[in-house]
């Protein structure tokens, strides 16, 4: 049986309000637990921080992904050691390098994958601006070279980075589907061609919310078809603080991101449940 886990980003729990009020780490973790998330995305570069967070999550029967931002192949080694100590369902890697050519990328990808494979740890490369995967077309060239490369698909970056016009063209849908077909996890945020993070409940953003829900549905179905029995798909709600979040003239956000994160959790769980239900019905219809 395949499993779906919805995580909350701890980075997304930062408030960055003009009055300086922030939740403590214990408050953030308790809120994530009490809201019903399955776990969290945890920064593993700071091992003491990772130990504190994972101890709480483990105590409460939750799980996590290990997030890292290596600039060299060797930068991944201590992250792997931390994962071997603390556990994680996978490493989410943002490649903090910006090679000019595909050829320059090969030693990084091969090195990181070799280290993770030798350690027996699942490794996903995140699609993200200002990283190796900053450009959609360049990332597709990476997939041409590494067709089995496992991605964490944060689709918001490509909508902004390529400034997709509305309505989204058939050609651009096809390009995004190629990314999604290599996705083994998702980071959740809704973007438009000009904004990296839209408020989910604002009426003027409905078409973009529906677009992303459609891509995630395609992604869930694609993953179900290629992942084995017992596999786990993770979806990290990652609604970031300002300046990802829009603010008014007073510096305060235009919406409640914590409420939106919980809304997103409910939305994607309902989407997953529908995909599972329709998957179960399809064989019966063929019979």
From TrEMBL:
Gene3D superfamilies, A to Z: Divalent-metal-dependent TIM barrel enzymes (3.20.20.150)
Keyword annotations: Isomerase
NADP among keywords: no
GO molecular function ontology, one term from the record: isomerase activity
InterPro entries listed in its UniProt record: IolE/XylAMocC-like, Xyl_isomerase-like_sf
Protein name: Sugar phosphate isomerase/epimerase family protein
Species whose genome carries this gene: Herbaspirillum chlorophenolicum
């Amino acid at each position: 049986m395949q499993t779906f886990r919805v995580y909350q980003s701890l980075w997304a729990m930062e408030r960055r309000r003009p009055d300086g009020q922030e939740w403590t780490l214990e408050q953030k973790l308790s809120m994530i637990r009490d809201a019903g998330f399955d776990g969290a995305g945890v920064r593993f570069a700071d091992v003491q921080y990772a130990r504190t967070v994972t101890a709480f999550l483990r105590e409460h029967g939750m799980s996590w992904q290990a997030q890292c931002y290596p600039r060299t192949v060797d930068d991944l080694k201590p992250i792997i050691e931390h994962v071997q100590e603390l556990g994680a369902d996978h490493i989410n890697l943002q490649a903090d390098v910006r090679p000019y050519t595909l050829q320059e990328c090969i030693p990084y990808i091969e090195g990181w994958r070799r280290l993770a494979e030798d350690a027996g740890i699942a490794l996903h490369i995140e699609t993200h601006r200002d990283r190796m995967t900053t450009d959609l077309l360049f990332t597709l060239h990476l997939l041409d070279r590494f067709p089995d490369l496992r991605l964490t698909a944060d689709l918001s970056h490509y909508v902004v980075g390529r400034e997709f016009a509305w309505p989204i063209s058939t050609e651009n849908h096809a390009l995004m589907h190629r990314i999604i077909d290599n996705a083994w996890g998702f980071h959740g945020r809704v973007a438009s061609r000009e904004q990296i993070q839209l408020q989910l409940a604002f009426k003027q953003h409905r078409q973009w919310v529906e677009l992303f829900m459609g891509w995630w549905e395609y992604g869930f179905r694609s993953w179900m078809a290629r992942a084995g029995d017992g596999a786990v798909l993770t979806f990290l709600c990652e609604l970031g603080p300002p300046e990802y979040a829009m603010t008014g003239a007073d510096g305060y956000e235009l919406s409640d991101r914590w409420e939106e994160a919980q809304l997103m959790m409910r939305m994607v769980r309902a989407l997953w449940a529908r995909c599972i239900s329709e998957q179960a019905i399809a064989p019966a219809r063929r019979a």
